[in-house]
Amino acid sequence: MTQLLLLRFSAMGDVALLAPVVEAFTSRYPDAQLTVVTRPKFSVFFAQFPNVRVVGLDVAGRHKGLAGLFRLFQELRKATTFNLIIDANENLRSAVLKRLFRMAGVMSVTIDKGRADKKALTRKDNKIRRQLPHSIERYAQLFERAGFPVAPAKPFLFTPITSAEAELNHFLASQQISDSEPWLGIAPFAQHHQKMWPFERFVPLLASIYAGRPVRIFLFGGGAQELAQLDTLQQRFPQAVVVAGKLSLAAELALIGRLSGMICMDSGNMHLAALSGTPVLSIWGATHPDAGFGPWGQGDDAIIQVPADVLTCRPCSVFGNAPCWRGDLACLNDISVDTVALRVQQLLNAPR
Q1: For residue 148, what pLDDT is reported?
Q2: 202 in Cβ contact with 186 (< 8 Å)
Q3: Tens digit of each residue's pLDDT (9 = 90 or more) over 66-92
Q4: Which of 40, 172, 249, 344 has the greatest count of CB atoms below 10 A from its CB?
Q5: For 6-53, how does the pLDDT look when each residue is reduced to its tens digit (9 = 90+)?
Q6: CB 280 within 8 A of CB 153
Q7: What is 2-145's CATH topology?
Q8: Alpha carbon of 316 to those of 196, 277, 303, 333: distances in Å?
Q9: Nearest 10 degrees: CA dihedral of 158, 161, 162, 165?
Q10: Mean pLDDT across 214-236
Q11: pLDDT of amino acid 351
């Protein structure tokens, strides 16, 4: 049996986007075994696939630093003999692991992230505007270069996990939540400020949504600071349900799959919703879907943004981690509550 080692450590959305490619791989090559090295909590993205084993990367403990990476290398070699390393991460950690395996006679292939094209798309002057390959397409190209052509499903749907469904049902029962009205998820956060619509606008947005029709709203986030912000929102709207910190990632994924829609930023939650077949309304600021991170399998109606021909500085960043050149974040501040509220009503009223 062919043994392949796949490296993709973070971030959550980037790891989740591997799922359609891994599914396509396991379907086309049932006699191959794939070992995925990633953060332990991300194993849920691959739980439904046959012949896939997940090895958790413990960056804060046993796999910390160069000594930890050497320990991981030894653990992997002890587990099986690999035929090839597939590096979907391309960072220092993956480079160290590839070098160790190369010294042991195991070759590797590495993802082409298209850095030059992304730089041309996001630079301040003389931008070259064009749609770049989606991250899932880049992963598929990587597998093809490894000798395993695949065709990821579009759209893709995560397979429900029985234990996660049971956890979710218990949570919904404890909250006395029924499915007699549409369920709307709201994930107002992203990794960087330049990707987040002003949080204070969610108060008038929720007021408008609730005034329009009956709806059950679930609030998503993570970490103490985000949870504190969501709590202030719930104080204004007690009927909203804060999900953050109350469900496992697997159960959150199960809930996302049941939603009528998800309002989100360019974020991991956007990818989880798209990969669950849930219609998204993603609000974009400093970044742009042309960089290859749009909601997989969904069209322009999943995007809310100020057009790049109106704000010619867009996009100014691939990941949203660069300071605003204008200094006013007009790409986010110019998206009105009325604009988002109208799109939400259109989403909720659309047949599904």
Answers
A1: 98
A2: yes
A3: 999 999 999 999 999 999 999 999 999
A4: 344
A5: 999 989 999 999 999 999 999 999 999 999 999 999 999 998 899 999
A6: no
A7: Rossmann fold (3.40.50)
A8: 14, 29, 17, 15
A9: -70
A10: 95
A11: 76
Selection from 298, 256, 70, 289 nearest residue 161 by Cα: 256
pLDDT at 169 over 70: yes
CB 156, CB 297: distance < 8 Å: yes
Tokens, residue 4 = 């392949």
**pTM of the complete model:** 0.96
Task: Kindly tell me the sign of the dihedral angle through the C-alpha atoms of 69, 71, 77, 80.
Answer: negative
| Distance separating alpha carbons of residues 37 and 283, to the nearest angstrom | 31
Q: Model confidence over 272-298: pLDDT tens digits? A: 999 999 999 999 999 999 999 999 999
Q: Which of 320, 311, 305, 292 is nearest to 130 (CA)?
A: 292
The secondary structure of 124-183 as a DSSP string is SSS----PPPPHHHHHHHHHHHTT------SS--PPPPHHHHHHHHHHHHHTT--SSS-E
The residue written with tokens 């969904």 in the block is 298
Q: Which CATH class is domain 178-349?
A: alpha beta
R_g (Cα) of the chain, nearest Å: 21
Q: Which of 254, 27, 7, 297 is nearest to 136 (CA)?
A: 297
Dig out the tokens for 304 from the structure. 């809310």
Residues 6+ apart with CB under 8 A from 38: 8, 9, 10, 15, 54, 55, 56, 57
Residue range(s) in the chain whose domain bears CATH number 3.40.50.2000: 2-145, 178-349
Both structure tokens of 335: 């998206």
Strand 183-187 to strand 108-110: parallel, antiparallel, or no bridges (unpaired)?
A: unpaired
